[in-house]
Amino acid sequence: MRISHQTADGSEAFVHEVPQFGLGVFLMTAEDECKTSVLAALEAGYSHIDTASMYNNEREVGQALKHANVERESVFITTKLRRGHAIGYEDTIEHCKESLALLDSEYIDLYLVHAPPVDPEHRAPVWKAMEYCLEQGWVKAIGVSNYGAAHLEAMKEYATYMPCVNQVEYNPWLQRPHLKQATEDAGARLMAYSPLARGDKVDDPRLAEIATRLNCTPAQVAIKFCYDQGCITIPKSSNPKRIIENIASLNVDISSEMEAIMALEENYVSGWDPTTEL
Ligand SMILES: NC(=O)c1ccc[n+]([C@@H]2O[C@H](COP(=O)([O-])OP(=O)(O)OC[C@H]3O[C@@H](n4cnc5c(N)ncnc54)[C@H](OP(=O)(O)O)[C@@H]3O)[C@@H](O)[C@H]2O)c1
């Protein structure tokens, strides 16, 4: 999938290609859990890994890539500037370099501001530093996470390059049409985190009925829904069988059940939601 950064005159800059499906590695905290899961995912055909400074496993992601002996260009790595580190221009640059060192890579494919910096005064300098990292070639693309429509609108005042993605919680129980539209209006793709609502909703009986009719698993319905809505979709699993099950969802045709899946909407937030913060 193509991603790019919109500029003030409406043109596109720094165009990059992102695999629309990937592995999320949040809460992989046991020793080697992340490395083992990334290796299982690469084996299963994944080519995109979503990590973050906050997950404390960037080093294991880098180790897995080295261990698998794959070409760096064949795997797309997303990582994120920790919210507590998003406090100014110099700090942002330092922490980007730190992530590069932990990943043991010459570049990051996609670098995200993990959440709107708590102090609104920090938002412009942090983004200007993200743009600097982009211009240096340390990162191939930059974006945001957990930004609401108002945060995106405010960026137009200070961004030379608008974000190419906005990573937010998105799944059948939280479909966020207005936020998705605002993201697309800013020239960005929506990147769907917690497509399984952190596992909270895998046992939803309504989802089970849909899955039975489609002859697939409940998790596959939720994942494919996000994907078919045009979102970059990054389910997490440390379980080798589920890692395979989740990528196999890309082969499931859910079109006959779209109405039933859309009806699962209940504005359910499984994690945090900084999109509504001022
Ligand atoms: N930017 C942000 O603020 C933010 C916030 C949250 C998440 N994220 C990113 O998005 C990724 C995914 O979100 P998430 O980790 O919150 O939750 P998720 O992917 O919605 O759900 C993960 C949970 O579902 C379970 N699971 C996975 N596949 C399953 C299957 N086929 N059947 C049944 N259960 C299954 C997992 O357990 P097992 O591991 O045991 O399979 C885990 O408990 C994260 O890893 C992270 O990369 C970003």
What does this entry look like structurally?
- The chain has 278 residues and is of the alpha/beta class.
- The protein has a domain at 18-199 and 229-238: NADP-dependent oxidoreductase domain (TIM Barrel, Alpha-Beta Barrel), CATH 3.20.20.
- The protein has 10 helices and 10 strands.
- The chain has helices at residues 33-44, 58-68, 89-103, 123-136, 149-158, 177-185, 205-214, 218-228, 240-248, 258-262; strands at residues 2-6, 12-17, 23-24, 48-50, 76-81, 110-113, 142-145, 165-169, 189-193, 232-233.
- An 8-stranded parallel β-sheet has the order 3-4-5-6-7-8-9-10. Strands 1-2 form a two-stranded antiparallel ribbon.
- Strand 4, helix 2 (58-68) and strand 5 (76-81) form a beta-alpha-beta unit.
- The longest helix has 15 residues, at 89-103.
- The chain is globular and about 50 Å long.
- It binds NADP nicotinamide-adenine-dinucleotide phosphate.
- NADP nicotinamide-adenine-dinucleotide phosphate is lined by residues 24-26, 50, 114, 145-146, 167, 193-199, 202, 219, 234-239, 242, 245-246, 271.
Strand content: 15-25%
Total number of strands = 10
Radius of gyration (CA) equals: 18 Å
Biggest beta sheet attributes: 8 strands, parallel
| Broad shape | globular
Sheet with most strands: strand arrangement: 3-4-5-6-7-8-9-10
Helix content: 25-40%
Count of helical regions: 10
The CATH homologous superfamily of the domain at 18-199 and 229-238 is called NADP-dependent oxidoreductase domain
What fold name stands as the CATH topology of the domain at 18-199 and 229-238? Answer: TIM Barrel
- Write the H/E string, N to C: EEEHEHEHEHEHEHEHHEHH
Poorly predicted residue ranges: none
| Helix and strand composition category | alpha/beta
Name of the CATH first level of the domain at 18-199 and 229-238:
Alpha Beta
Are any ligands bound, and if so which? NADP nicotinamide-adenine-dinucleotide phosphate
Average pLDDT, rounded to a whole number, is: 97
CATH architecture name of the domain at 18-199 and 229-238: Alpha-Beta Barrel
Distance between the first and last residues' Cα: 31 Å
